[in-house]
Amino acid sequence: MIFRTFGWSFAITVVGLIAGFLYGGASALAVVAILAVLEISLSFDNAVVNAKVLQRMSPFWQKIFLTIGIAIAVFGMRLVFPIVVVALTAQMSPWATLDMAFNEPDRYHAEMEFAYPMIAAFGGMFLMMLFLNWVFEDRDIHWLAWLEKPLLRIGKLEQLPVVIAGATLACVGTWVADDAHRTNVLIAGLLGIVTYILVNGLGELFNNPELTEEESSKGPNGLVLATGKAGFFLFLYLEVLDASFSFDGVIGAFAISTDPIIIAIGLGVGAMYIRSMTVFLVRQGTLSEFKYLEHGAHWAIGALAVCMMISIGHHLSEWITGGIGAGLIILALISSIILRKRDGVAASDAEELESSRL
Questions:
Q1: Phi and psi (nearest 5°) for 217?
Q2: What is the rounded distance in angstroms from the CA atom of residue 188 to the CA atom of residue 183?
């Protein structure tokens, strides 16, 4: 099971390390390995949330996620996307930006940091909408019940996530963003909200129980699996989610290396493990086995969204944002294990009581 799910990740790791060695020698190989670990540590909450979406997709779209999706993640989000963003903010052609990335890496890094507030506003608002829609969603299981239950009652107000996200964006644009970035931050944040509503809404529109048998199928857990248009929009949703997570990793990677090729290889290897981890969580049924894991991941995403909003005006280390997310997921995992043991003891006591009655 491990090799079947992570086989491609192991293969890409070997290829990536060899490519790094051939490109820049032993030092480049070491940097590739460090960047891969950085990407995995910063994105585990991404894998958990991805798994929640991926379990609603058909096997065909799961394969697309692991093939075409990983190509988009490695080359699109971790190499092309930063170049396009810098080209737009610096008002340069993509080719001139690419030349700057290879020949003037320090200037390229500075331009990318200048563009960061807009990226943080877009990604932060997208992730905040994801978190708010989850936290106000009706559910039977609560991890932080003292907090989640009151929020659930408040969430009965119509369009509350949009109201909170919009108010947060207005506050950030007014008091956190500086004068040079204020307008662009507000526009980027608004686009993040609109993108979430559009992509999530289209996914829900095409993924409903009234689909015909040709348009849907059922998985082993009884969930209706999204195919066709529904599968495509869920795939698109996952790619936008990955983009929201990826830019923090790209910025953090420049503290380790300024070479865009080495960064793309290292983060690409890490991204492959995140994809494989997502599939592993789905196939093993981990989310249903560890009931609070999904909660921890969403609270981690909420924390990341807040950190991204703060980072528009104040520098926050990627290790801080990644550490908060990892800490929340670890706490959720520990709580899930305790719950499993408690349920197991309760089930055992019930069986003994039933046997004594017989």
A1: -150, 170
A2: 9
In tens, the pLDDT along 217-262 reads 555 444 545 567 777 888 888 888 877 777 667 777 777 777 888 8
317, β-bridge pairs: none
d(CA 294, CA 329): 8
Q: Are 223 and 207 in contact (CB under 8 A)?
A: no
What are the two backbone dihedrals, phi and then psi, of residue 57, each rounded to the nearest 5 degrees? -100, 150
What pTM does this model have? Answer: 0.80
How far apart, in whole angstroms, are the C-alpha atoms of residue 188 and residue 236?
A: 19
Task: List CB contacts of 241: < 8 A, sequence separation 6 or more.
Answer: 46, 49, 50, 53, 126, 127, 130
Q: What is the DSSP string of 79-102?
A: IIHHHHHHHHHHT--HHHHHHHHH
The neighbouring-strand residues paired with 224 are 218
Crossing angle of helices 182-206 and 160-171, in 10° steps, is: 160
216 forms beta bridges with 226
Kindly state the tokens that stand for 190: 């608004």
Tokens found for residue 120: 């943080």
Tell me the per-residue pLDDT of 187-226, one tens digit each, with 9 for 90 and over: 999 999 998 898 878 767 665 544 444 445 555 444 545 5
Q: Tokens 């990407």 sit at which residue?
A: 39
Amino acid identity of residue 24, one-letter, is G
- Single-letter amino acid code for the residue at 6: F
